[in-house]
From TrEMBL:
Keywords: ATP-binding, Nucleotide-binding. This is ABC transporter ATP-binding protein. SMART domains: AAA. It comes from the Bacteria. Transmembrane segments: none annotated. One of its GO terms (molecular function) is ATP binding. InterPro entries: AAA+_ATPase, ABC_transporter-like_ATP-bd, P-loop_NTPase. The lineage of its organism: Bacteria, Pseudomonadati, Pseudomonadota, Alphaproteobacteria, Rhodobacterales. It comes from Paracoccus simplex. It holds the Pfam family ABC_tran. Residues 2-228 form the ABC transporter domain. The keyword ATP-binding applies.
Amino acid sequence: MLELRALSLHRAGRPVLDGIDLRLGTGEFVGLLGPNGAGKTTLLRAALGLLPARGHSSLAALPVRERARAAAYMPQGREIAWPMPVEALVALGRIAHPHSAGSADRAAIERAIAALHLAPLRHRRATELSGGEQARTLIARALAQETPLLIADEPIAGLDPAAQIDVMRLFRQLAEQGHAVLASLHDLGLAARHCTRLVMLHQGGIAADGPPEAVLTAENLARVFGITAHLVQGPDGLMFQPLDTLRGGAL
């Protein structure tokens, strides 16, 4: 679904990404972790060809129209400028399929609206929604694109707890159905419980890559995030609770 080889990007002489090698396959829900400034957004945008970078990205190498059919992207920014109905905004995800039959378009839009529980909002102007409702609408637009790969930058930020769980379950289900999902996340607990694999960024490189229990170790959490945490394997997956910082005081 995605292959990055020696992907590097510098800003002001500082390496933001330094030789990233990453492969993402069918059936994977990969959580991209790291503290603020670790390069998560930069990696996603460079992988999509939206930022100039050295190295190879299998997505960035594709022509634009093929790229739009290969991967859907939900950016971190949530501002919706056009006062259009939710249903019409979700339908924008079908632009990547200009030759699709009308019935196929309609079915894809309805599936996306149902998946994000947007039916009661479908005729509301998107600009009048709450921040969380707008986020769900933008996720639905990406789903309506119906691509093999979904890339999402902090997709659950600003959502209430129930909506966060719903979105993480939805992404896991997409992976189980044969898609692949790559999402940057700050909630390590939800990442531990729902992602099939975690990739932890630190100082421009990959500090850890593997199943949640192999990545969210005490050593990695201390080295990369500067925290201690309690982890226990529960019946539904790894349970994570941050406990304290190691910086020895307030910011």
